[in-house]
Amino acid sequence: MRHTVLALLLLNLLLAACTTKVVQMQALGEFPRPLVEPLPVRVGVHFPPEFGTFTYKEKRPGPGGEDWTISIGPTQLQVFRELFGSMFSGVEELESAQGAHGNLAAVIVPRVAEFQFALPSDTKAKVFEIWVKYDLGIQDANGGEIGHWQFTAYGKTPTAFLTSDEEAIRAATIVALRDAGASLVSGLERDPRLREWLGLDPAASFTPEPAR
User: 165-190 vs 73-87: helix axis angle to the nearest 10?
Assistant: First the structure.
């Protein structure tokens, strides 16, 4: 009997030590479009397969560390499609970034360069945080590399009113994706090099839409 109890205790300890947390982001029913006048340029966008399926896995440190799997690919793909469609007068989604695309001013290839997240146990604060570093590769119409532009999206959410750690990470991710949109808009407003790469007048900028 004592051996059975000990075996059950060991089994419970092992299960506790192997807790798995899975966050699978779903399509957003609504995402705020940037309130800007589209820039007068037609661009191509190639989303590499790994961008639309991006999944981050991490084993948290410590004997009771959790295995985290965070999948944001489908949601970020949806958001970036929405963003590019709002920011440019014409967008063509390409199956490949290679080859000649003579009717396009440039080809944009986004990718996730880095992903990090923090739990309240990491920061000793009652917030969950997400950082996603994006890299936009800019190519000319013939597939030649022009340059790279990087920015970091950040999102955080408090623990209040959230039912689980997974739900908190989902909420923080949505905030980070909204921040990604703001960073894209501000980058095109402030970085003349980026506008030049896209075939725009370096002095050109977004014009906010009138209030409705």
Answer: 30
Residue 184, beta-bridge partner list: none
Spell out the domains of the chain, with CATH numbers in brackets.
19-25+38-197 (3.30.160.150)
- Identify the CA nearest to 180 among candidates 136, 148, 132: 132
Q: How many CB atoms lie within 10 A of CB 177?
A: 24
No. of helices (H) and no. of strands (E), the chain: 6, 8
What does the pLDDT look like over 142-194, one tens digit per residue? 889 999 999 999 999 987 768 899 999 999 999 999 999 999 988 888 889 99
From the number of C-beta atoms within 10 Å of its C-beta (0-12, 13-18, 19+), residue 142 rates as exposed
- Round the average pLDDT of the chain to a whole number and report it: 85
Q: Taking the chain, what is the end-to-end CA distance rounded to the nearest angstrom?
A: 74
Of the candidates 84, 180, 203, 168, the one whose C-alpha atom is nearest the C-alpha of residue 131 is 180
pTM: 0.84
Amino acid found at 26: Q
